[in-house]
Amino acid sequence: MAWTNKVLRVNLSEGTCKSEPLNTEWAQDYIGQRGLATRYMVEEVDATCDPLGPDNKLIFATGPLTGTMASTGGRYSVITKGPLTGAIACSNSGGFLGAELKSAGWDMVILEGKSDKPVYLYIENEEAQLLSADDLWGKSVWETDELLHKKHQDPQLRIAACGRSAETGCLYAGVVNDLHRAAGRSGVGTVMASKNLKALAVRGTRGVGNIKDPARFMETAREQKQVLADHPVTGEGLPTLGTQVLMNVINETGALPTRNMREVKFDGARKISGEQMLEVRKTDGRPNLTTNAACFGCTIACGRISTIDQGHFTVENKPQYWGNSGGLEYEAAWALGADTGVDDLDALTYANFLCNEDGFDPISFGSTVAAAMELFDIGAISTKETGGMEFNFGSAEALAWAAEKVATGEGFGADLALGSKRLCEKYGHPELSMTVKGQEFPAYDPRGIQGMGLTYATSNRGACHLRSYTVSSEILGIPEKTDPLVTDGKAGLVKAFQDVTAAWDSTGLCLFTSFAWSLENVAPHMDSACEGDWDADRLMETGERIWNLERDFNMRAGLTAADDTLPKRLLEEAANTGPAEGKVSGLAEMLPEYYKERGWRQDGNLSDETRERLRLPG
Amino acid sequence: MQKSLHIDPGKCTGCVQCELACSFENEGVFNTAKSRIKVFTFHQEGRFVPYTCTQCDEAWCMQACPVDAIVINAKTGSKDIIEDRCVGCKVCTIACPFGTVNYNQDTGKVIKCDLCGGDPACASACPTAAITYIDADTTGLDRMRAWAAKTDNTAQASA
């Protein structure tokens, strides 16, 4: 229960939409969302397939708690083989689309094949159909949203779409829902566009009602909401400053990657911080931040709703950007700001708006711009390649220009749309790409936060902070403080965070609850809502199963132990200032121990014992 | 003491916990489409506004109903639908100037807020106190207090 037990299977080649029962046996072993969709991927998709070919599949998956009153219970993920990484991709998003899909009666939508012509999927409860998207192709996410609302005359329609960046092949294009929430990473939007699928438009009025023990579930949800409200991070820090609460904290730690990770401290950090977003601008008397905002069912409300100063050079004479929209979150502010050396808050907000408007990942985009700036700095590229733009570190003009170009894939934008790895390879300096498995780093320097080095190196979807957020332990002391500068014990810590997170994502809850909750707080939600007995131990074991299944997919896809590494810069160039001064990432000390903890062979493959213990498919 | 639902949009984050609580209380499912309270998002302005029945004293809906299916709840003062009497003519949905009475196509009846009989689920669920259930005679108290706090004691006001 809590699952709708229905899967919508859409064959884009044949133009068919069919309902089929959910594999409930798998649901018991893989929960939902990230885990369960990966199980379907492993069963149905050849891991060696071309991510942008018709054999890849694209799954929109909710969790059993999606659409319920459990705080933050509105998440969905898009699961596919990622074009940026060649690995399993799983991008998680909030907003309202996931709950709407569940309320329409679907646990997940599996999209397969490739449509001849542009289409969008329209779902109204049980009814699903593919409709022509001829008039939507070539339009931004925001235009698509507006056109679909107009066409269907339904203001309550929830829409997820890919933007022009995806259509023109940007390898880190995401799927954007509700205008500014995104399944952002690894190019899941690129896969969507490769199938000629422009959007999902969903209206669900059936609701989520099949709760195992409604009275206990309601009591649990009430109690656990209170735990979030009483915690300093989820009750105070995140609502007030959003994830941007971290900018000054991480900078002070000496772990804020700066100028393509040449440095670990950014002198302009304060000017692009959450605190700065609250400061009234001298020019127009308003702060950057208008209000905080919640996703479906979320009692934390970390979302940022911002404006750009109308007189700022980026939006002068562009009134379409004068209203409010999704503002900067920490990872975006870091990638667009510290990593490029740009400390102009309005320029960052503008670039962030464009990332949402045309659906490309601000982390990968910002990091790729940072790599281009370093290439420019060392003379590997010049204005000849960029098309006239001076790509200097710290140039807000270059950042804003780059966002406009990637949005449409024009000129040098097509190079930037390749991502940092391919860009740096193209111009002869692969060592300048700050990526793992082809995916760009987020906002924590592994030299100053050692656990994050192992996290990045072993993440199943390429460099990522959301696969094991050891920052929580190493910096914030949650659930317990560990020293960010030592490698001892980090193998076990990373494994534990990876397993916990895999289970957490699969329930349909938001990972941000984990600042205040442990699996002990998640379990009663699951146990009162879902069929079966769910306790923290079972969730932990399920998380481990999911992690290993993702790993197994990657190994079948052709990745090897050699891909579990970091760029040379982080392994050889020491941090030049702050608490981590003189340190490099101690990955070599952590990785063998990690493999051992995982029960993996030296070649990075799962051992037979591990496979058997976790009951993984053969 | 009669109480009122008091809504302070400035505190709303748009989380729709109120809609979930309302639909669960009244329909037994989590279904924002069947909620008697709705949160509206004004995206360009960055505003969220919850809206529901204000329980008018001389309720247009009640006056308009041809079969006396809307009655005053003596305990709470809410205007309640008597489902058995409602014929689904929808005249009340036209009569209500605020649009807070709506037709439910699944049942063929109308639905509106009934203050959950005196313990509104939306107010209990709201995480930011944007929706509270307070003394009907003093819904302006907090705002008066805020202005009072700003008053300069040395100045004299005339009204």
Explain how this protein is built:
The complex is a heterodimer of chains A (618) and B (159). With 618 residues, chain A is α+β, with helices and mostly antiparallel strands. Chain A has 25 helices and 17 strands. Chain A is 39% helix and 13% strand. A six-stranded mixed β-sheet of chain A has the order 2-1-6-3-4-5, with helices on both faces. In chain A, strands 8-7-12-9-10-11 form a six-stranded mixed β-sheet, sandwiched between helices. In chain A, strands 13-14-15 form a three-stranded antiparallel β-sheet, with helices on one face. The two termini of chain B are 29 Å apart. Chain B is built from five helices and eight strands; from the N terminus they run βαββαββαββαβα. In chain B, the strands form four sheets. A two-stranded antiparallel ribbon of chain B has the order 1-8. A two-stranded antiparallel sheet of chain B has the order 2-3. A two-stranded antiparallel ribbon of chain B has the order 4-5. The model of chain B has no long low-confidence stretch (mean pLDDT 95). With 159 residues, chain B is an alpha+beta fold. Chain B has two domains: 1-52 and 117-151, Alpha-Beta Plaits; 55-112, 2-Layer Sandwich (Alpha-Beta Plaits). The chains are: A alpha+beta (618), B alpha+beta (159). The interface between A and B is medium-sized, with 38 and 26 residues.
How are helices and strands ordered from N to C of chain B?
EHEEHEEHEEHEH
Contiguous runs where pLDDT drops below 50 for at least 5 residues of chain B: none
* General shape of chain B: globular
- What is the rounded distance between the termini of chain A? 28 Å
How far apart the termini of chain B lie comes to 29 Å
Please give the oligomerization state of what you see.
heterodimer
Rg of chain A, rounded, reads 22 Å
Contiguous helical run count of chain A? 25
So, CATH architecture of the largest domain in chain A?
Answer: 4-Layer Sandwich
Strand % of chain A is: 5-15%
Poorly predicted sequence stretches spanning 5 or more consecutive residues of chain A: none
Mean pLDDT of chain B: 95
Instruction: Give the biggest sheet of chain B.
Output: 2 strands, antiparallel
The CATH top-level class label of the largest domain in chain B: Alpha Beta
